[in-house]
Amino acid sequence: MSLEPESGAVKIFTTSHGLLNNQFNYNSGFQDKDGNMYIGSVKGMIRFNPDQFLPDTSAAPVYITGMEVRNLEMGPDEKRNIHYSKKIMLPYDKANFSIAFAALSFTAPDMISYAYRMEGLDNDWIWLKSNRTVYFTDLKPGRYTFWVTTTDANGKRRPNAAMLEIEITPPFWATSWAYLLYALALVSAGYYAIARYHRQQTMKQKRRMEALQLKKEKELYQAKVDFLTNVAHEINTPLTLIKGPLEEIMDHPGALEENRHHLAIMERNTNRLVQLTNQLLDFRQTESSGFRLDFELVDLRRVLQDTYDNFRLPAQQRKLQFHVDLPDEAVNAWADEESVNKIFSNLFSNAIKYGQTIVVAKLEAADGQVRLTVANDGPLIPEDMRERIFAPSSG
Fold it and tell me: What is the pLDDT of residues 145-159, one digit of tens each?
């Protein structure tokens, strides 16, 4: 062992440096004035001068000497690839291997240190003190590059590295062709799923359209039935209004002037019957989504007066007091006259039908709104039936 007093560095010499033995006798050391050291060992005396030891600055070439795969030596072809082409290919199931290497140095070979790095696996260099074999287990498929070099006394890497390219081939189910087949299968499955979904949506749409068509046909049929029911209900009112004056004329055939008023009522209701009959014959309006309202400027006072004149005789026949309170001036509104006539007629018809002794009506117009109030002394309409007062009935 030598000590540098200035730097405090310690260097140990062994048989690797040329000594006879690593065991020395107690109190057997001597140094002369020239710096020679004399040390007695179990195998004899050793003389050396530490100043005469020159640092080893040579960079001995490093070679990869062998490779074992699964603890089995490689064949001649594989060794040839390692030594000359510096490339080797291993299947994925043989990714457990060891690499042996050595530096061609005959000066203290046991004192040589090594450093290695596996590119693709290690980011930093790994230093070895004396071991000249490294082991790798279960490397993933891919390309790797193994580097190994020697280090100097200060642990610095020397530029004498050896290299070996290693390729671990993937299993057949992880190759590029396999991934291509997977992609094709995935695309095919996606195309099939999309096509099937499209067919299902098309069938659903078709069934939905058929259901809508059937619903439309049912609604059209129901609209026609409702149309016929409404018209038949409306026809019943003018027929009733014609029947009353006709009975009066039959009872007094000679009094023409007295019956003129009854004849006027019969004429108005006959005209209404003609209009209702025309509606009954025109079924096309139900196929174009029901009835069409023809709005025009209508004098509601006149319409209500005509309706009142039509229902005075039925009220007299039922011995009812029938009064209508009308404004002094015309009440004009944009409306469908036929629909207004139907509303007024239904209100009066029901009021007279269910009245006991009196029926009164009042037409009011204020603030751009028109209100018609019809009242009688008959039984009240049940609470749950009031929303259906204008619904068609069989009676």
Answer: 999 998 765 556 777
